[in-house]
Write a structure and sequence with these properties.
The structure is a single chain. The protein is α+β, with helices and mostly antiparallel strands and 245 residues long. The chain has a single domain, classed as ApbE-like domains (T-fold), CATH 3.10.520.10. Helices cover 34% and strands 25% of the residues. The protein has 6 helices and 13 strands. The chain is globular and about 50 Å long.
Length: 245
């Protein structure tokens, strides 16, 4: 997946948690083996070469493709699994894989789980009684600074995902043109229960631009967002303030 994953697990029976961590890490390596577009022997690469059908692939491939189709429907086509006419599920795989890893670890019974995949975070439970998980959102225009701090207070599960140009340049594609999205945004951070969807919605909103993107995010249930424009203007969904702290 071309990124670094980190884990913060609090509480639980140590042996069970260690075993769950090993299982989660093995699962992430398996995801890379199946979905990498850079490996000639991955199932996605073989699917693209028509050496395999979806039905012959690992069941995870069918699940990711179904989720991607749903993301495309909800985003009105602004999120897509196809770039340049080729199947490329990387836009959904990272968030989905991190969320699943967090769920696998949580099944072992710890009090709190945080899985960070390249800066996108899935949170479950709490690090300790009375203290919620908190996630800093980097300010893309002020390196080293924070644009906001998101709190998971009152939520058993919460995800924070950011899409933008600060770290990787103009890598977000406009599905209508197949070229880099022309946007008045530098970053979109989405807060939602599921990292799979938070990651997709951040990408789709960035491609749409600040005005359309914000209006669309406001229409989604259980979703809040912070958008930063190229003019250093901060725009937020109506309920985001309740998630800051």
């Amino acid at each position: 997946m071309g990124t670094v994953f980190s884990f913060d697990v609090r509480g639980g029976e140590p042996d069970a948690v260690r075993a769950a961590l090993r299982d989660a890490v093995a699962g992430l390596h398996r995801v890379d083996e199946v979905f990498s577009t850079y490996r000639d022997d991955s199932q996605i690469s073989r699917l693209l070469r028509e050496e395999l059908t979806v039905g012959e692939c690992d069941p995870d491939v069918g699940e990711v493709l179904r989720l991607g189709a749903e993301a495309e429907r909800v985003s009105e086509g602004w999120f897509s699994l196809r770039y340049g006419g080729r199947l490329d599920p990387t836009g959904i795989v990272k968030g989905w894989a991190a969320e699943r890893a967090a769920q696998r670890i949580a099944a072992a019974g710890p009090d709190g789980v945080s899985v960070n995949g390249g800066g996108d975070v899935q949170l479950l439970g709490a690090p300790e009684p009375g203290r919620p998980w908190r996630v800093g959102v980097s300010d893309p225009l002020r390196p080293g600074g924070l644009a906001a701090v998101v709190s998971a207070a009152g939520a058993e599960e919460l995800a924070v995902a950011t899409s933008g140009t600060a770290e990787r340049g103009a890598h977000i594609v406009d599905p209508r043109t197949g070229r880099a999205a022309v946007s008045d945004l530098v970053a979109v951070t989405v807060v939602a229960p599921s990292l799979t969807w938070a990651d997709c919605w951040a990408t789709a909103a960035f491609a749409r631009g600040s005005r359309e993107g914000l209006a669309w995010l406001e229409s989604l249930p259980d979703v809040e967002a912070l958008l930063i424009t190229t003019d250093d203007e901060v725009r937020c969904t109506g309920g985001l303030a309740a998630r800051l702290g």
